[in-house]
Amino acid sequence: MAEQDAIRAAGGVAWRADGDGVRVCLVHRPRYGDWSLPKGKLDPGEHPLTAAVRELAEEADVRVVPQVRLPRARYRSEGRPKVVDYWSMRVVGEGGFQPDTEVDEVRWLPAADAVRLVSYPHDGEVLAAFAALPPVTGTMALVRHAHAGARGTWSGPDAGRPLDATGWAQAHRLAPLIALLGPARLISASARRCVQTLDPAAALLDLPIEVTGDLDEPVGGQDPDERALAAAGCLAELAAAGEPVAACSQGKVVPGALERLAGRPGDYVTPKGGGWLLAFAADGLLAADRL
User: Where is the Nudix hydrolase domain (predicted)?
Assistant: First the structure.
């Protein structure tokens, strides 16, 4: 399926605690007479994760925090290929659902019951993947600082090198994605460009930026492996606190830190202004999804 020509949509498995288990959200669409996971088409230029959160609010009247990427669904719709991105979404608030012409009923069910009710096999596969996840104990946005020009064009100390115009544009694009996680803290490496990358998110969320050298890249003969280990330890400690966090580090730190958190090699090279949605379980890093 040629994804560049496909209809793009996004949604999620919204879940809330219910006694010793959880219940997930399904919606009924009178136009199709079906039961499905809440989802919808991306607006022009919209990030899939932003669309997923928006659609859950519009269709099920819930506020959610993304946690783990779930399997992508691919099928044909209206004679065209369609690709739908899904995430596990923890419910953090609910309004008063009102039926309308798009969704006229919402049900909250155990995942096993939801699998039996949904009208489409791909929704069942997404729900099965959700049900197989261990409990998520922490979420984090980990980003690499945005573009700050070339080292050779900056005459001062490298730690003082600021974002350029491209970098500020990247930082402003990152801010609403970071906000989707509802972080309680913003943590930055000490380089100026790292702090500035979080500035738009800090203004949007009205949060201070906390600076730590544990996320700094190696300098002056420091061992890169030791710096990566220190960064991984810092990130694990932040995740263990149980509240969503956003952190900004550097290109020589992020890949090594993620490899140590994951416990295995992987492609963790991160472009400037790029980042990851990280989910942690009791035994460590559960998932790393590129933002």
Answer: 5-131
